[in-house]
Design the sequence.
């Protein structure tokens, strides 16, 4: 079932669990994620960003393929534009057929973030497409971002931001960062700030930089009100690890064999992650918005 993200996250917000948003850059990853979700009776969010589109996840092929998989699936599947950097990128994503778009103007001044996010909301909502925005700034793990409180989401400002923009979900900065952390580093998250944000906003909240954050942090984040967790690096690593192990065991493995082992590894990783964040056996969306345009 192909739906917008509001359909999925309203239910997660109501019942206090999180949904995995996995960056999929090819058919094998997308199929693995959707099949794992079906087996776990869980919703799933498939996503990729503009940079990934230019390298491999070409939208002209990926979008219709993922939509076809979603429409055949027995669970809700959303296709999200991850970190849309501009209004033009959002327009393109809507034309291609994404069911949710994220506008990321978090590195810009607050007023500009509001202005751009409001523009995207007005355009997307008119077509039944939901919108995620970011307030605060989730930076890059390799650069040491996400460790200083001045990058974190301000609670009072978040309330104002949601009121002024009308976004359906808000990505908040509480201490995580994108990419791969230095060896042995586990981020320290501001769970008190998360509790204050959830109490004030009472809406779906998003955690970017889920990879490498540690299972304890992830469980506590979900318990504290996070409803969507973005995962990219850890999913890639699961595939890489399986490929290396296959080649070490069977050096003559061909390309077909490598694709198969990578897809299986991603599927197993997604199944485990779904269980970790509590979206397994949650396909009960009777009280959620059905994703249709009012």
Sequence:
């Amino acid at each position: 079932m192909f739906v917008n993200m509001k359909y999925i996250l309203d239910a997660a917000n109501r019942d206090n669990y999180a949904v995995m948003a996995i960056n999929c850059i090819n058919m094998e990853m997308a199929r693995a994620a959707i099949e794992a979700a079906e087996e776990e009776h869980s919703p799933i969010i498939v996503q990729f960003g503009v940079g990934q589109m230019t390298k491999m996840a070409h939208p002209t092929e990926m979008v219709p393929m993922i939509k076809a998989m979603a429409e055949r699936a027995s669970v809700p599947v959303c296709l999200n534009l991850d970190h849309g950097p501009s209004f033009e990128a959002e327009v393109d994503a809507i034309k291609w057929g994404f069911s949710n778009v994220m506008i990321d103007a978090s590195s810009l001044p607050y007023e500009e973030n509001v202005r751009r996010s409001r523009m995207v909301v007005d355009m997307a909502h008119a077509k039944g497409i939901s919108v995620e925005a970011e307030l605060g700034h989730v930076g890059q793990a390799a650069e040491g971002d996400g460790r200083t409180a001045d990058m974190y989401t301000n609670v009072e400002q978040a309330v104002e931001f949601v009121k002024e923009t009308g976004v359906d979900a808000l990505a908040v900065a509480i201490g995580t960062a994108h990419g791969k952390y230095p060896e042995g580093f586990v981020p320290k998250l501001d769970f008190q700030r998360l509790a204050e944000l959830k109490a004030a906003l009472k809406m779906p909240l998003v955690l970017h930089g889920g990879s490498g954050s540690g299972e304890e942090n992830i469980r506590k984040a979900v318990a504290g009100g996070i409803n969507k967790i973005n995962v990219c690096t850890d999913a890639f690593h699961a595939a890489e690890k399986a490929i290396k192990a296959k080649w070490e065991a069977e050096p003559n493995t061909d390309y077909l064999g490598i694709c198969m082992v990578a897809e299986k590894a991603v599927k197993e990783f997604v199944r485990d992650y779904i269980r970790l964040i509590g979206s397994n056996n949650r396909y009960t969306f009777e009280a959620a918005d059905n994703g249709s345009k009012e």
